[in-house]
């Protein structure tokens, strides 16, 4: 399960960073079914497998933070048997997963409070927190119109559009990233998920920076929503952008030119109207 989860994360089969963190935490439960002669052997395996999960997607702050917490809390138990260390791992994973899920849901609830009946929204990429906020607004009886950009070159926004299209009360339109400026003319707000915020830099799926810049130019407020675990003021985390296969941009060989395919871009937080998390402002 751990190897499969590492591969899934690396291939971006799971799109939401919160879900990635939860999947990675759950994957470590596999270690409780293995045989270890000593606690030290168990802890070395825990640290090695946790590092492999973190390396699968070094850009995810929530993945980094939850994996560090799990390992450090289990390692902190002194003079325990292997069985007790395994039980500690199970308990820590449950606590971490519960906190991530609670933070994500509370952030979505706060964002939903700012979505009025008849609102026109624009979102980019696939964010489970944005999706939950929209679903909460719909459950409260509000009718919405949502524009979703494709989030090229992986087209992750298509999953968001397909999911929204299954809900009553929302009119969904999928458009190319480059057409966002046309849709923004009729939007009340841009609502984005977050990969992470480090200091005064907002990291998210590539295409976010030009979208936010255009929204600011057109006086459309930009709200970013996510669990507080994704907001990092300082510490050991350093964002690492990922440059993916050029075949995602163009299948034919590049003849006489180069192709770059970054997964993320960076937006100054000064351009954002609000950062909505599970914590009080």
Explain what you see.
The chain contains nine helices and ten strands. By secondary structure, it is α/β, with parallel strands linked by helices. Helix 1 (2-10) runs parallel beside helix 3. The mean pLDDT is 93.
Mean pLDDT: 93
Radius of gyration: 20 Å
How much helix, percentage-wise, in residues? Answer: 40-55%
CATH-defined superfamily of the largest domain: Translation initiation factor eif-2b, domain 2
Question: Would you report the number of β strands?
Answer: 10
Could you give a quick summary of the protein structure above?
The chain has 281 residues and is of the alpha/beta class.
Give a topology summary.
Blueprint (H helix, E strand, L loop, with lengths): L1 H9 L6 H11 L11 H18 L4 H15 L6 H31 L7 E5 L3 H12 L4 E6 L7 H9 L4 E6 L4 H5 L4 E4 L3 E3 L2 E5 L2 H10 L4 E4 L5 E2 L31 E5 L5 E3 L5
Parallel strand pairs: 1-2, 1-4, 2-3, 4-7, 5-8, 7-10
Antiparallel strand pairs: 5-6, 6-9
Which labels suit this protein?
single chain; 281 residues; alpha/beta; Four Helix Bundle (Hemerythrin (Met), subunit A); Rossmann fold; 2 domains; six-stranded parallel sheet; four-stranded mixed sheet; 10 strands; globular
